[in-house]
Amino acid sequence: MAGTAQIGVTGLAVMGRNLARNFARNGYTVALHNRTASRTRDLVEQFGHEGTFVPAETAEEFVAALERPRRLVVMVKAGAATDAVIDEFAPLLEPGDMIIDGGNAHFADTRRREAALRERGLHFVGTGISGGEEGALNGPSIMPGGSEEAYESLGPMLETISAKAADGTPCCTHIGADGAGHFVKMVHNGIEYADMQLIAEAYDLLRHGAGYEPARIAEVFRGWNAGRLDSYLIEITAEVLAHVDAATGQPLVDVILDQAEQKGTGRWTVQIALDLGVPVSGIAEAVFARSLSGHADLRAVGRGLAGPTPVALPADEAERFASQVEEALYASKVVSYTQGFHQLQAAGAEYGWTLDLGAIAGIWRGGCIIRAAFLDRITAAYAKDAALPSLLADEQFAGELGAAQDAWRTVVATAARLGIPVPGFATALSYYDALRAPRLPAALTQGQRDFFGAHTYHRVDRDGVFHTTWSEDRSEEQQS
Ligand code: 2AM
Q: Can you tell me which residues form the catalytic site (predicted)?
């Protein structure tokens, strides 16, 4: 007998459970399965009234509960658990059926799994899902990869359960073949790291440069949230900063241990950017900043190093400085998105994905951590020119960075003077200046390489490959 469930979810820990409930609340019949059956029973007991669930104890029952072609969502840990679950279910499926991996898989694993399942006639849809528990339940940003054919069948359901942007557009679009969805989710997370680092630096500057207390800084962030920086992260930053610890009466931020952790997608973004040769320096600095914060031993040794005498700015300068920090934050944010989108572009070329960069910015407008008014601007930039080589080539962004550059330089210089670390702001400004530079000292680097390793160089005035015999002061063209 054919099953009746339009979708099934296996792996009913909090993300899987909430996703299953989201489907059910939207009117879909949802088959449920979990390795440990008690989780399945718990879900039905607690939330069975929210929609139509078909609980299954065994893999066979679960598969039988699904209408054809089957849509089977796997929500287990990335890595070996995902492979184990795929190996368990794939033999029970028939050509045309779909396995959807909604976990945080590495895109290379997704490519491998997609190729293997394609050989068996099965669709494998590696899907980035952003928004955490809350998003999974009420509407996440969804980034599905895999085949067009799978998206035709599955896409409308994913769009239904996804977050909606302010204009009502679903925050879900078909990203591209095989691992494209998980790749885009990874870069999303990398950008999230950069956003968070920049906000943290802005806070540090307001605290130790402007001399503001956390409650006052919360006010500043609330003000910024009403402007071009309007975003979820700025909004929650104000809340975090305003929070007072019940136990001590201190601002909570002063009680939290200052060692940031990470789960790994930011690190992957940087590792892959290195392989692709894309300078994502903002994301890299964010990953390194978290890593540095965690080296308690190193920091204990470093605390004794000399620095400038700590003096906050005079009150009248502090206010001006705070508005300069807003400009530096905005400009640095534009740079980290520019770098992230460069990585997407490079990955599209490398892996054969036709990525619609404007649409990708569009589906990050709701549901996910980096949701922000600003993303509309990126969509608009790519709508004007889909082949835009860089976001900095967009007139509007270029104009804004030009207008912000004086403040941006003042902030980075002030940070250096006061001894406040701003790796994110500084690397963003260096990236901007490097792109602007008519000539880079890379010419000298090439000269050094030719000197010590005969690595050759190109000339600005003639075609060809050249090597200088430095000891004899003789240069000649090399045969290629
Ligand atoms: P469990 O409840 O039986 O532990 C997150 O860990 C989710 O993934 C849980 O629902 C968990 O099932 C499931 N899970 C983890 N490893 C698994 C595996 N190797 N096979 C099947 N399910 C697994």
A: 185, 192
Percent of the chain with pLDDT over 90: 97
Task: Please give the average per-residue pLDDT across 178-202, as a whole number.
Answer: 98
264-322 pLDDT tens trace: 899 999 999 999 999 999 999 999 999 999 999 999 999 999 999 878 789 999 999 99
Q: So which residues are the catalytic ones?
A: 185, 192
Q: Identify which of 180, 181, 157, 183 has the alpha carbon closest to the alpha carbon of residue 9.
A: 157
Q: Are 478 and 466 in contact (CB under 8 A)?
A: yes
- Residue 457 belongs to a domain with what CATH number? 1.20.5.320
DSSP string, 246-312: TTTSSBHHHHS-S-----SHHHHHHHHHHHHT---HHHHHHHHHHHHHH-HHHHHHHTTS------P
Residue 250: give the domain boundaries.
185-436
Same domain for 468 and 401?
A: no
Token code pair at residue 212:
């503001």
Q: Is 12 annotated as a binding residue?
A: yes
Helix (H) / strand (E) element for 130: namely strand 123-130
Structure confidence at residue 415 (pLDDT): 97
**Atom 21 (ligand 1) nearest CA:** 35
SS3 call for 291: helix
3-state DSSP assignment of residue 353: coil
Is 458 flagged in the annotation as binding? no
Cα(126)–Cα(99) distance, integer angstroms = 8
In tens, the pLDDT along 318-367 reads 999 999 999 999 999 999 999 999 999 999 999 999 999 999 999 999 99
Specify which residues 74 forms β-bridges with.
Answer: 10, 101
CATH number at residue 134: 3.40.50.720
Mean of pLDDT values over 106-125 = 98
Which residues have CB under 6 Å of ligand 1? 11-13, 34-36, 39, 76-77, 81, 84-85
232-246 pLDDT, tens digit each: 999 999 999 999 999
